[in-house]
């Protein structure tokens, strides 16, 4: 695929089913955890909401439970819905109930959005405080910085895409995709409910060392095809990474990618 992404070409692997995809996602995550824990004593992992949290349950298998250095993991969210943390729409709750509560990651290493802003539905305040939290962890060298830019650089980010091509809470036709100065921004009229959300900005998303976009099902097939045709109207088309941006697709999601892409 020759594209304007140049060297930062997107890669893809198509799996026969969700099962194979989640097994591969677990392996990919465990390998990077081993690499970064060895190199720097920390593994910074960024989660999104949606289906991928259920695919992460593969990591609950004994082989990973026993080998992963969970105490070195630090967990962040690429986007979060601004609802109380115990609300059914909370990405924190989704990940905590389905995955985080079942592995020995220290609770202090799990960085949810500010509880008070979440309870009050204060999206602007939540974005400001999440940005402060990220900067604090950069100062403590838990999060690395990207080359000379000073932008935070996470080790691995796990993303999903909606049928409209959104990633994180960067939606087509909304200005947040163009934000370059802030690390974290907010939206109060998200087309996908709930309306109030915070999200990392594109520069932060793309500074990540490894970005894994996991997409399953036919509902996303048109959007996946547009991404691989380099249609930059879709926020997900902009996804790159410092080292590797890789798309994990099941056959249904990949079914409309034109031949040769
Ligand atoms: O909180 C959210 O809504 C998201 O983080 C969002 O960007 C999600 O990852 C995609 O919409 C894919 O969601 P599904 O996996 O449920 O299709």
TrEMBL record:
- The organism's superkingdom is given as Eukaryota
Q: What is its EC number?
A: 3.1.1.31
Broad class of enzyme this protein falls into: hydrolase
Q: In which pathway does it act?
A: Carbohydrate degradation; pentose phosphate pathway
Reaction(s) the record says it catalyses:
6-phospho-D-glucono-1,5-lactone + H2O = 6-phospho-D-gluconate + H(+)
Instruction: Outline the extent of the Glucosamine/galactosamine-6-phosphate isomerase domain.
Output: 17-247
Pfam families assigned: Glucosamine_iso
Q: Which InterPro entries match?
A: 6-phosphogluconolactonase_DevB (IPR005900), 6PGL (IPR039104), Glc/Gal-6P_isomerase (IPR006148), NagB/RpiA_transferase-like (IPR037171)
Family membership noted in the UniProt record: Belongs to the glucosamine/galactosamine-6-phosphate isomerase family. 6-phosphogluconolactonase subfamily.
Q: What is this protein called?
A: Probable 6-phosphogluconolactonase
């Amino acid at each position: 695929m020759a594209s304007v992404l140049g060297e930062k070409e997107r890669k893809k692997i198509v799996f026969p089913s969700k099962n194979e995809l989640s097994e591969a996602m677990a392996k990919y995550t465990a390998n990077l955890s081993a690499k970064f824990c060895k190199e720097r004593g920390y593994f910074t992992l960024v989660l999104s909401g949606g289906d991928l949290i259920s695919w992460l349950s593969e990591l609950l298998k004994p082989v990973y439970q026993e080998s992963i250095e969970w105490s070195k993991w630090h967990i962040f969210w690429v986007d979060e819905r601004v609802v109380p943390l115990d609300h059914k729409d909370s990405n924190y709750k989704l990940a905590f109930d389905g995955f985080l509560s079942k592995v020995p990651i220290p609770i202090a290493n799990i960085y949810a959005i500010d509880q008070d802003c979440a309870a009050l539905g204060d999206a602007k305040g939540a974005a400001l405080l999440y940005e402060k939290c990220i900067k604090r962890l950069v100062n403590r060298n838990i999060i690395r910085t990207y080359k000379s830019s000073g932008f935070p650089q996470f080790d691995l980010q796990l993303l999903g895409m909606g049928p409209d091509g959104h990633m994180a809470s960067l939606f087509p036709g909304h200005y947040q995709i163009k934000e370059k100065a802030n690390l974290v921004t907010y939206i109060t009229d998200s087309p996908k409910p709930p309306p109030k959300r915070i999200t990392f900005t594109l520069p932060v998303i793309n500074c990540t060392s490894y970005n894994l976009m996991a997409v399953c099902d036919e509902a996303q097939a048109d959007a996946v095809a547009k991404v691989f045709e380099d249609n930059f109207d879709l926020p997900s088309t902009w996804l790159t990474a410092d080292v590797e941006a890789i798309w994990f697709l099941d056959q249904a999601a990949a079914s409309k990618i034109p031949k040769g892409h």
